[in-house]
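for the writeup, i need someone to sanity check this before i put it in the appendix. the sequnce is what the collaborator sent (i think, or maybe the updated version? ugh). structure was predicted straight from it, no edits. if anything looks off just tell me and ill rerun, i have time this weekend
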Amino acid sequence: MGKQAGTVGVVVARRKSKRVPGKVLRPLLGVPLVAWSVRAALASNLERVIISTEDSEIAGIAKAHGAEVLFLRPAALAEDFAEDQDILLHALDAADHHAGHAHRSVVLLQSTTPFVAPGDIDRCLDRLHATGAGCVFTVRKATEPPEWMFTVTREMQATPFRPGSLEKERQHAQKLPGYYLPNGAAYAMRADAVRAQRRIYCEPLYCVEMPPERSIDIDEEIDLVTAEAVGRHFGFTLAGARSVSEPRQPMALAVPLPELVGARVTLRRFDASQISAGYLAWLNDAEVNRFSRRGGRTTTEAEARQYLADRSADEAIFAIHVGALGHVGNLKLGPVDWVNRRSDISILIGERSAWGRGIGTEALYLATRFAFDVLRLNRVDAGSANPAFIKAVTKIGWKTEGLLRERVRLETGYVDWRRNSLASWARSVQSTYPVSRRTRSRNRPSVFQPIFVTALMKA
């Protein structure tokens, strides 16, 4: 889907912050804070993006990053307790007047939640139009349920916020309902609803979840410090602006790739230093490549190095390492289709002594969890005629979606080809596949815990 007609994004930013003076001008990873929301909005499917601010310096920075400056906000709308709906309606009126027509949808973006991604905005818009909601807003999952909270007096006498005592089931978060908090990143509203109800949370209400690492809301100085550290740790980068006619900017996988550790298998980034004589022997082994599309063609070292150099930024190649066996094969994830949140996965186990030992199954499990938990994809796919591969992905929960009979020709004759996939892992699978003790938590199931997230991706 391209730009959605009749939609406008309003990035709100003011200079008069009491707790962090001039915070929207403060640099985050070398870029003014206000620029993050502006660039995310421009890279989304919003038709236009404007800035609402009382400050000419903020307006100039926003304009330099692509936002339209239609006005400077009146002083009355720049005070501490100015109502959000009044600020939004003022901007919406200006946008309607400038366009010569009424906008059907408006998205409020607070520049103090900088790690909003274009896809977060798009999902809010899509849900708004698909459900007939009055407002769709971004949320994060609350880590502390209200059952654990207390109100206190001046003397610090504590009373449970929720009636009852903090014991039994109330001590275990997994036994309590899930709670969500608005993270302040984006609020998509029907223009007629916000005008009629004169509030941001226009009913009916829906929401879109964002991960905690991208839900940092900057209210205090410590939040800026945290955002800087989180942004560097996870490799967040500024979203690329684009016009209606330009293609969507690719969202690259971050480098270096993380090390994914399982019970026996470790996946590490594959690089040119690992192109050895043994690796080339795998590529040219007819039995290893029996089900591949290589057709018996010989691969030279130069060709192997060139293949690696030509990989796009949306492809990840992992080397599969197993204890004393060392490097036993490779796994490729990608190219990732960021628009549709999906990727292909392929695998080669070249070391024959590793065959039939579940190595490929564990490697595919780790890669699948990485795709869902870290890259936050919605779907992974693979087509194969290899019975071992089909058995492996079936074991970890993948499903066969299609069968093409006698599609692949082998020396022994024609064999069937299957399309296998898994969608929405977190909603469809409760895996018990073993992982390393290093990734386990006392209060959580034994599943792969994400240790790394890529640069601002379309969520």
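DSSP finds eleven helices and 18 strands in the chain. Confidence is low (pLDDT under 50) at residues 240-252, 426-459.
thx in advance!!
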